[in-house]
Amino acid sequence: MNTKSLPAIALVSLLAAGCSPEPAKAPAGTKAAAPTPLVIPVPRETTRQEGKFEVSGATEVVYSGGDGAAQAASFLVQQLRANPDIGVTGPKPDEPGSGSIAFVLAPDDNTFEAEGYSLTITSKGVTIKSRTPAGSFYGAVTLWQLLTLRPPQGGVVELPALEIRDAPRFAWRGLMLDSARHYQSPEFIKRFIDQMALHKLNVLHWHLTDDQAWRLEIKKYPKLASVGGWRVPAGAAAKDIDPATGKPRLHGGIYTQEQARDIVAYAASRHVRVVPEIEMPGHASAAIVAYPELGVPPASTQLKAVPSDWGVYENLFNVEESTFTFLEDVLTEVMAVFPGEYIHIGGDEAVKPQWEKSPRVQARMKEFGVKDAHALQGYFIQRM
């Protein structure tokens, strides 16, 4: 197998699993089992058969049973067209036939799990069957992996006859992207989602706020993005002066709500859910620079710029009713952009010297009936 053709995530997955890119050999003196197909992750069940099927420019991709099958078929064709050496025709609506790659959606077939599928390769063709669009999609991903294991010979890819029956072991298969510490373009994030989908990952944990930036547009509080989304770079880059302003060039970027909705929709087309993270009560420096009244005086009034360096900062949101209202307003807008079941609200690394030294915060603790700063964070998280 040519590992140079593997996406980076795929190669890391192989190495992290302790696998070489070629199937392991059986110990001397033992009977070798049929090699497991080189698919990430390894399918639950694989049965080898006799024969092979040749995929060429004359091979038709067809689908039946609904939009989920059509979308999976289109995804496969789109992926293969990125490789000019592999040609197929279609997709088009039709029943499985000799010489075709067929996607069959069978919603009433309860032998399949929600994201499960079967992939059957015989000398007469390929059939991918599932009861959900996600199952059809993952079947397309597995077939794409099999078709791109080795370069085609004369425009033909040989697939060994086999049957794969597969379903994910874990319902939540997540990958976290930290866009707060380093801004990535929407185009990059879509490519990132593509790589997730090709490895059957289904949750993008999108880290959008932190001490070093607030990336998401909040219409009711525009300075969160316009101020909190930019900072002077750390290190030598801080000496890069913009001649138009005489000040250091700012590093950063923001995502409008329209851009975020587009990313959510793009992810959904690849069966990836997006879970946004809006940090609280700590990792709040960028928000406090934008709106100092959210922080704990006097530190909040002395914080003049979004931090550039790594590390754990002491800046926490205060616990005034106006701050809880602010955070509720923010989450209301976040929920309108991200329609999924979950929003991540952080809670980590909330070091508490500012709360512990503040007479006003101490008074609020008595109002809430909590005994110390640790319990105050519990109250804060429970309330939000």
Give the total of beta strands.
Answer: 17
Q: How large is the share of residues in beta strands?
A: 15-25%
Tell me the number of helical segments per DSSP (H or I, 4 or more residues long).
12
User: What's the CATH H-level homologous superfamily of the largest domain?
Assistant: Glycosidases
The major beta sheet can be summarized as:
7 strands, mixed
So, CATH architecture of the largest domain? Alpha-Beta Barrel
Question: Can you list the strand order of the major beta sheet?
Answer: 1-7-5-6-4-2-3
Question: pLDDT average, as an integer?
Answer: 90
- The name CATH uses for the topology of the largest domain is TIM Barrel
Spell out the helices and strands N to C: HEEHEEEEHEEHEEEHEEEEHEHHHEHHH
Sequence stretches where pLDDT stays below 50 over 5 or more residues = 1-8, 10-27, 29-33
Structural class: alpha/beta
Main CATH class of the largest domain: Alpha Beta
Number of domains: 2
Q: How much helix, percentage-wise, in residues? A: 25-40%
Distance between the termini: 51 Å
Rg from alpha-carbon coordinates: 26 Å
Overall 3D shape: elongated
Question: Would you mind describing this structure in some detail?
Answer:
The chain is of the alpha/beta class and 384 residues long. It folds into two domains: 3-14 and 38-166, 2-Layer Sandwich (Chitobiase, domain 2), CATH 3.30.379; 174-383, TIM Barrel, CATH 3.20.20.80. Helix content is 32%, strand content 21%. Helix 2 (67-81) packs parallel to helix 3 (133-147) and helix 4 packs parallel to helix 6. Residues 1-8, 10-27 and 29-33 have low confidence and may be disordered.
